[in-house]
Amino acid sequence: MRRGFKTQAEQLSEALRKNQSLTVLDKFEPKLFLESLGIIVWTPAEVPGLEAGLIEQLTVKDADSWSGVAIRVGDRTVIIVNSAHPATRQANTLMHEWAHIELRHKPNRVDRSEGGLLLLSDYPAEFEEEADWLAASVLLPRAGLVQCKNRSMHNDDIARHYGVSSELVNWRVRMTGIERQISARRQYY
């Protein structure tokens, strides 16, 4: 991850939430946000012309092999999210795909379907890390996590509060060092 990116992501999260009239403690609604930007959100079943066999492949047989993808349909951006995943994971997937768009990440590989859809995939590892960090920063702002932890909220309760997975909260709390920060502060007060 490039130097200074984590700070940039937190600042972008703060500005985005302010623009949406949300505090650091408010739940962020990814689908509503994306639709406000003109980005279309589809599940496989909502993709026009996608055959039932392909929908089954994507949502039943290979449901664990993908989470989401951003595509271009004409001049519109569409994010297709895996409807087999829980809503909490879908929230992170939507914001992860948005982060690639927001950060203007260029994929290593671009494929075109027979119908002419532009499929963007296979981003470099650094871009994936940045998209992970930015998505998590918007969904779980550091300042909000600090407030939740200062109130002695458990990670599962924080996850329910923000509408995200417990795994995402655990990762974010660990990666930001919030618990160490609060623990050190409590030793001195």
Mean pLDDT, to the nearest integer, reads: 88
Q: Please report the total strand number as a whole number.
A: 5
Which strand order does the major sheet show? 1-3-2-5-4
Distance between the terminal alpha carbons, to the nearest Å?
A: 35 Å
Largest sheet: 5 strands, mixed
Instruction: Describe the global form.
Output: globular
Order of helices and strands: HHEHEEHEEHHHHH
Total helical elements = 9
Query: Helix proportion of residues, in percent?
Result: 40-55%
Give the percentage of residues in beta strands: 5-15%
Unreliable parts: none
Radius of gyration equals 18 Å
Helix-strand category: alpha+beta
Polypeptide structure, described:
It is a single chain. By secondary structure, the chain is α+β, with helices and mostly antiparallel strands. The chain contains nine helices and five strands. The chain has helices spanning 5-19, 30-36, 52-61, 87-102, 125-139, 142-150, 155-162, 166-176, 178-188; strands spanning 40-42, 68-73, 76-81, 109-112, 118-121. A five-stranded mixed sheet has the order 1-3-2-5-4. Strand 2 (68-73) and strand 3 form a beta hairpin. The mean pLDDT is 88.
